[in-house]
Amino acid sequence: MSKAMSILPMLLLACFVGLGCRDHHIEKDFFGKPPADRVERLRQYSLDDQYKIFRYGNDVKEPPTMELAVPIAERGASAVPFLVGHLRAATDDIAVRDILLIFERMDAIGSYNVKADTALMGLLGSKISGMKDKDWQASCLKRLQRINGTK
């Protein structure tokens, strides 16, 4: 067996374990069904799966399926630690944008008082100020100002 062939299994393992490569089976199955009842169907999934499906729908599908933020937002305070964990770990602008959208929906439907959570507002502000894409940063700043009631 050549060296390249012996390295291949290690590379695949690193991809699946270290880099989080996935086949998006749950997401593809979800979007393979008729779009008419997506929001209702999403309510049947665990928070983790809802988040995966939401992110896939927002980041991969065209047009983005931003309405899928609603079932997560409806969870209110119970979803906040999960979302804060993902927000803290986020290293890309799109993840920050997507999580902010969920918090914006929470605020709009009244399932969580985002503005009153000063630690969360500070974290959101910090993540937004660190965004690399200035257009996304400006858009997210407007969303944060709406949550804060300043715009």
List keywords for this structure.
9 helices, 151 residues, mainly alpha
Notes on the structure:
- 66% of the residues lie in helices and 0% in strands.
- It is mostly helical and 151 residues long.
- It has helices spanning 3-17, 25-31, 38-42, 47-59, 69-74, 80-89, 93-109, 118-129, 134-148.
- The protein contains nine helices and no strands.
- It has one domain.
How many strands, which pairing sense, and closed or not: the largest β-sheet? Answer: none
Radius of gyration (Å): 18 Å
Give the number of DSSP strands. Answer: 0
- Which class do the helix and strand fractions yield? mainly alpha
Strand content: under 5%
- Terminal residue distance: 64 Å
Instruction: Estimate the mean pLDDT confidence.
Output: 87
Series of secondary-structure elements, N-terminal to C-terminal: HHHHHHHHH
Tally the structural domains. 1
Number of helices, where a helix is a run of at least 4 consecutive DSSP H or I residues = 9
Helix content: 55-70%
Global shape: globular
* Low-confidence residue ranges: 1-5, 11-21
Précis, in short:
This protein has nine helices and no strands.
Draw up the topology in text.
Layout: H1 3-17, H2 25-31, H3 38-42, H4 47-59, H5 69-74, H6 80-89, H7 93-109, H8 118-129, H9 134-148
